[in-house]
Amino acid sequence: MAAISQPQGASLRAAWIEQAQAHPWTTLGLVVSTLGVLVLLGTSIALVLAGAAQAPLRLALLGGTGAFGATALGALPGFALHRINQRLEDSMLGFAAGAMIFVVSHEVIPETHRNGHQTPATLGLMVGFALMMVLDTTLG
Question: Which of 112, 118, 129, 131 is deepest in the core (most CB within 10 A)?
Answer without folding.
Answer: 112
